[in-house]
Amino acid sequence: DAKTTQPTSMDCAEGRAANLPCNHSTISGNEYVYWYRQIHSQGPQYIIHGLKNNETNEMASLIITEDRKSSTLILPHATLRDTAVYYCIVRVARDDKIIFGKGTRLHILP
Amino acid sequence: NAGVTQTPKFQVLKTGQSMTLQCAQDMNHNSMYWYRQDPGMGLRLIYYSASEGTTDKGEVPNGYNVSRLNKREFSLRLESAAPSQTSVYFCASTWTGPQETQYFGPGTRLLVL
Q1: Which of A17, B44, B101, B105 is most buried, taking the most CB atoms under 10 A from its CB?
Q2: Confidence at A95, pLDDT banded by 50, 70, 90
Q3: Does the beta-carbon distance from B96 to A102 stay under 8 Å?
Q4: Could A43 and B105 be called an inter-chain contact, meaning their C-beta atoms sit closer than 8 Å?
Q5: How far, in Å, are A40, B11, B70, B98, B102 from residue B8 at the CA level?
Q6: Is A15 exposed, middle or buried (0-12, 13-18, 19+ CB in 10 A)?
């Protein structure tokens, strides 16, 4: 079973920051939070991952709460090309089993 | 560097027919995976292979077999296709470096009549 809870869908205006929440209240101390996205009809694409500290890369920022029970993926300036399903996954790094849930369908509105 | 490639892109089968979906990666990754995705659903793990010569069941292995032919190739076989196996199948591989990333293929769309 997926260990995360995400909203089914969200809307965001183009040019604004998109904040996608994820609850993972049963996360273990050695589990990382990973985010992937899937643009229509394509294979999923890795975005970012983190353990405790906030992380940032060229695509997004990941904010993890101090108790690690929830996190937020931030797309700082959303564009229409960011319309996709976003998956939040918790797993032990290098654990070979990766389980996807249903994700959040993000609609970027022009 | 082609990444993860899958063949065929599309396939139509009749119930009871067999087929093998092929997957190859040229990134020297150890781990490879097969997922299925049904309309409006997330990805479900069918089988995975942590290294050449090893395979393990995922969430939904029934009706499938896999073969890790070598480090590059990981095939998925349907021995007797059923309409419930109509889905999009994705192959993936993982680089377990400092920034672990899973790379996905473009998918195989399978229709079982």
Answers
A1: B105
A2: low
A3: no
A4: yes
A5: 19, 7, 19, 33, 21
A6: exposed
